[in-house]
Each structure stands twice: as structure tokens, then as C-alpha cells.
Amino acid sequence: MDLLGNDYPYSTSALTGKHALVCGASKGIGAATAKMLAIAGADVTVCARNEEALNQLCRELKTLGDGEHHALPLDLEDTESIRTAVSDLLQQRGNVHILINNAGGPPGGPLLANTVSDFEAPFKRHLHAAHTLTQIISPGMEEEGYGRIIQIISTSVKEPIPNIGLSNTLRGAMASWAKSLSRELPPCITINNVLPGFTNTERLGSLASSINQRTGKTVEEVHSGWMSQVPIERLIEPLETASAITFLTLPASGGIRGVSLAVDGGRLRGI
What we know:
CATH architecture: 3-Layer(aba) Sandwich
Strand order of the largest sheet: 3-2-1-4-5-6-7
Structural class: alpha/beta
Number of helices: 8
Radius of gyration: 18 Å
Helix content: 40-55%
Mean pLDDT: 93
Low-confidence stretches: none
Shape: globular
Strand content: 5-15%
CATH class: Alpha Beta
């Protein structure tokens, strides 16, 4: 399936005139989402710490869509830098209509193995960053009469995943934050979460390696154990998750608000 080509599921003008800010865009689901939004006609600003990767991505985006695409190197753990950089962005490029909150997850391991200080950096780059960005950007969304805020979180929001206790805790906090905001934001702004399952990214590979080091299981055994839980019996590709995220940014998604959508191949057992 060529989701960036003949199988692209949306109109290539669906988001023309809309400005999207995609965080954690240097790789994985973030990069895939930036590509899908660009094809839909959005002007995409990509954000991450790796400036070289962002510049490379922008070059690719310019081959996919007719919008204006720019890189915004930014450390999501630095709240003051976020305020300064995004305020400058709004002055230079206008209001943001679409905000994709996304950042790398913390290391795996049992929850009680973490110290209190281990919570600080992950919560800064996820919850604190998302809150700061929404505070800065949402007034412009209301002014424009259009806003879409999407968090890329995890299926651990619904069912905790073994051996990533800190990540489970963090993702749950993000989901509750978003649900609370869904009751407070103006009617023209929707906020939703996308919950990736086992997805073919570097993050999943690092988790498999971490489990290998702790348990002695081979990476192949870890992978087989994961796939035994997934009815479609394969990893999700980042572009598949990005397709769901893109739908939630469209005008047609305006009736969807405060939900957590799993893209997990059927892994979750709950209704």
C-alpha cells in the first residue's frame, strides 16, 4: 500500500490554507504525519531537536505538497524556549490551525525502579510542552475559527504495557489532560488522542533491546511475543497511524472530540 502515492486516502487540497505544527517530527510517526499533512495541502512546520533531520524532512515535504514547509529546531524540555520560539513562529508565519503533540518516550523498566527525578524530563517534554503549546496556540485557533489538537500517545492509556511503567504513567496523564481540555476549549477547536500500538519505529526497536538486556530473551522472541497479541499479526506502519491522525485534522472530523483512537491492529481487548 502506497499511502504517499496512489493509495493516499484524502483530497490533496483538504488542508490548503491550514498551518500545522508537528512536534517530534524528525522520525517515526511524527515524520510520517508531517508527510501526510503536506500531501493534504497544509503548510507544515516541523519541530524537533535534530535540525539536520528536520531540514532533510522539509526538502522531502516540498516534493509532496504545494504548501510552505519550515523547520523549527526546539527542545521540548525547555519551556521558556518553547514560548519564545512559538511566539516568533506565530508572528512570522501566522496562526497555527493544527497542533500535533508528539515526543519521544522514556526508557523502559519497572515503575518502582524509577526515582522521582526520572519523571521530570519526560513530563516536561510531553505534558508541560503540550500544555505550553496549547496555551500559546489556541487563542489563534479561536480567532481563525478552526483548531485541531492531537496527541500521539500509546495504547497503554487503555491497558498498561508491562515493563514500561513510567511511560504508562505519562501517557495516562496526557490522556486525562486532553479529556479535560475537551470540555473547556472553544467549540471550533477539537482535541483528541491517537494511541499507536506496536509500530515499526526506532522506539519499538529500542524497547525490544531493553527487554533483551533485562530478561535474556532474544529480540526475535520479544517481537514474536508482541505479535501474538495482535490479531493482524504484524507491526503497524507509521504512515498507517499518520493516516488516522490526518483524518482528525480535517474539517470533516469536527464532530469528534475528546476521544482516544487506537491504531493497534486490534491488540486492545476492551470495547
